[in-house]
Design a protein that fits this description.
Blueprint: E1 10-14, H1 21-32, E2 35-38, H2 45-52, H3 59-78, E3 83-86, H4 92-102, E4 107-112, H5 115-124, H6 135-141, E5 151-155, H7 160-174
Parallel strand pairs: 1-3, 1-4, 2-3, 4-5
Helix pairs in contact: 1-7, 3-4
Length: 176
Amino acid sequence: MPSDAARSIAAVVMGVAGAGKSTLAAALAERLGATLVEADDLHSPEAKAQMTAGVPLADDDRWPWLARVAERVRDEHRAGRDVVVSCSALRRSYREALARDSGVDLVFVHVHGSEDELAARIGQRTGHFMPATMLASQLATLEPLAADENGILIPLALPLEDAAATAAREVRRLFR
């Protein structure tokens, strides 16, 4: 739960490839009047090339990226701006690092769905560096939100407007 001193909203829309993180994060940021940060843009060129080649990132590849994401959240927060981040944040340790390194109370919005739903969505998108073959490794890495984590679940099957409205309502509630 955010402290009294933390007035800026900071939400991370998380999930595996194909969950629609970027789409929901953009809609949520718009509803909240928040800055949108696309964590994929903060990957190194080497990491993007590795994923494009179908090679999953190891933790050693992810930590510098997560540090860049946390730094961006911290910068937005210090400037007094609400921020919504689209970031896979697949493991609890990654979410803990984002919260610790940003120094900001974060709410995690986990977009989740079945493997079949996710595969179908990945097959429909174009221009993304993450190939559909990476879905299995993403699902194997995913550690869903635990009951003691500050977060909400959004079903992939919800229409975008409903998902954004639900996420905005719950994020605002958590930041009261």
